[in-house]
Protein 1
Amino acid sequence: VQLVESGGGLVQPGGSLRLACAASGFTFSRNAMSWYRQAPGKERELVARISSTGGGTYYADSMKGRFTISRDNAKNTVYLQMNSLKPEDTGVYYCNTRADYGITGMAYWGKGTLVTVSS
């Protein structure tokens, strides 16, 4: 399993970024996919999750209305569109799935992409 994130960078408060995670080594269309983030000095937290078909999504409360998770099963890629970014959104964003349909079992992680929200 390989997960490779991209799209991070420096953005001003109120700005937008689109992260992408390219997946390989498993049947992508069978797995739920998640985005997590880890802010400096804090524990890693779940940002959003999307079902295998894309028909179901979950967002952490602080991201609702600002972030949108989506996927393209033809491209084996999951995205995170982040709008109205705040300084507290700063952190390393990780792509995640698990061995059993992305829900349970061994967790797989990408190396992360750094998002910095600052003026």
Note: The chain has a mean pLDDT of 96.
Protein 2
Amino acid sequence: QVQLVESGGGLVQAGGSLRLSCAASASVFSITAMGWYRQTPGKQRELVASIKSGGSANYADSVKGRFTISRDNAKNTVYLQMNSLKPEDTAVYYCNAVLAGIPLWSWGQGTQVTVSS
């Protein structure tokens, strides 16, 4: 079973930055599209950024221009650089393999991001 370990969350003021990391145990990581999701209480988990094995990325409109997803296939790790953070970015952030927007693996524990105004 694939294990996903997210890290890098924390408390930051509006306008600040955070860099999230997600390490995956999967041997197929390098050929798998990966995504970052976020969830707030009472809401569905939403996909905010994804990156294909070759490096092409897509973003939700709400984070476009502020967030950057990247990956290091040698380390089986995907990153999310979050700049110009807003209070509405407050959520638990998760990573997962993604296919047509659908997560493929079991979820990790996530990492909490809290943006204060």
Note: The longest strand covers residues 91-99.
Protein 3
Amino acid sequence: QVQLVESGGGLVQPGGSLRLSCAASGSIFSINALAWYRQVPGKQRELVASITSGRFTYYADSVKGRFTISRDNVKNTVYLQMNNLKAEDTAVYYCAARQITSVNYNYWGQGTQVTVSS
């Protein structure tokens, strides 16, 4: 079992920055990838960024150049630094973990709200 706890969401003005954190606990040795997804009401959850144990990263086109995903293996934490935020970044952001034995992300955090508004 893996537990994920997100923090760092909130209200920010357009052009501002936020950093999301996700602390992992439990069977963390079995995790080979961590990711951030986001979801707005009425839409499917979308992959924002991911990072593997080998530190390979992926970004959705909509956030390239503005968001940075990173991980601290000592603190068992993954971060999402979000800069130059736009109104369309408003969503609930979820942390996800994929185990070595899984094809899909199979553990999820509870989500944290990010609202970009003036």
Note: The mean pLDDT is 95.
